Structures are given as C-alpha cells and as structure tokens.
Amino acid sequence: MFDITIQASDNSGSFGAYVARPNNGGKRAPGIIVIQEIFGVNKVMRDICDDLAAQGYLAVCPDIFWRQEPGVNITDQTQAEWDKAFELFNGFDVDKGVEDLIATLNYTRTMDGCSGKVGDIGYCLGGKLAYLMACRSDADCSVSYYGVDIVSFTDEAKNVRHPLLMHMAENDKFVPAEDRDTIIKELKRYDLISKFVYDDVDHAFARKSGEHYDEDMALKANNRTSDFLQTYLG
After folding, report:
1. Given this model, what pLDDT does residue 202 score?
2. Any idea which residues carry the catalytic annotation?
3. CATH number at residue 37
4. Domain span holding position 11
5. How many domains does the chain have?
6. DSSP code of 230?
7. pLDDT of residue 122
8. Quick one: average pLDDT of 37-48?
C-alpha cells in the first residue's frame, strides 16, 4: 500500500506514504499532501490522490496513525470500524501529527519530479491538520474540508502566511453551529483565509459513497479547491 518511507523529524522511526504521480511526460509537478480522515490511508484517500495526479499533481498521502498502529486501512461501513477509527482519533497526538506532516512536506519537495511547490489538503481529522499546517508550516497553500475541533486553535490563525481554503458543513454533527460561528468570527480578520459554508449538508459531504455524500455540494467545494490549487500551485 505504501510507496515511500519518510523519516520522522524526532528520529523516533519512519512511516509510509502512498504516492500517485502525474502522467505529464516527466515534467516537474507541484506536490500535494493528502491528509487522511480517521479511517487511515484507505481507498477513499488513495482515490483522491489518484484524481489529483490525473489533474497534474504529485500526490502524497502519509500514514499519520503510524505511531499508534501502522497501516490502518478501514472504511466507514461497519460499527466495528467506526469504533476503531474513534479509538485511533482519541489517542492521536495532534502536535506529533503536524510534525510528521511537516516532515512529509519537506520530503515531498525533494522528490524526483516535484517542482518544489507543495500544498496540502485534508478531510475531517485531516481538515484540522490542514488548518494547523497553514498555521505551523510553510506549505504553499492548504485546503481544509470539514475540519474538527478547529475552534480550539483559532488563536494560531495569526501565524498563517500562505493561503488557506476552508470548507464547512452547515449541519456538521461533529462541529456544533456555535463552534462554526466562532471560527468564522475569529478568522474573518485574516485575508489569507477563505471560508465557505455549504447549506443543508452534514460532515463528510464530499466523501464519495459515504452516508452524507452530497454530489452537488461536493462538486461545488471540489471546483473551488481545483481553482485554488491551480492559483497557488499551478
């Protein structure tokens, strides 16, 4: 499942990552780090990487659960898998996770075929981490889909130095409306942060085959993402 191995910056070990490369005749391409949901580097994440590669990007999806259990690859289709996903989520060290993503960012910039520009895009837990990458790293741009618990980190927005695009669900069962409103209020002062709320959809509205997938809203968000990435990485 993994194509490359990345050394952790704290020298505690290494972790794998799935890689999808563009078919662009050997030209150098921008990189995008795809940050997983709570289900690991599963087919949903690999398909996102493959789709980004088809758009001309070098896509890298690191195994951010490796410190707990390497190689997690589950779905959202059974209660047992949800239970396991939340166990991993609850035991996840956010600060170490961001460090591992920064290590991935640095590694990706050195990969054969990478132009040197690298952004990131994350979903759910990955959406929170994409927000924190905008706050704590020098990624060229970041995209957050329905990030959870961002309200606890709004004070870090002052550190954002590169563009950040945020997609939020109006009826997100994991992000109360008051938290969403607080996020919007606290971040509105920052010109580099763009925020969009999608009406009448729940968490993970862009996850194909997911319970709350909404084709129209997913298309709207994905088109905005595509334009954003082309502007800042293309």
Report:
1. 97
2. 172, 203
3. 3.40.50.1820
4. 4-233
5. 1
6. H
7. 98
8. 97
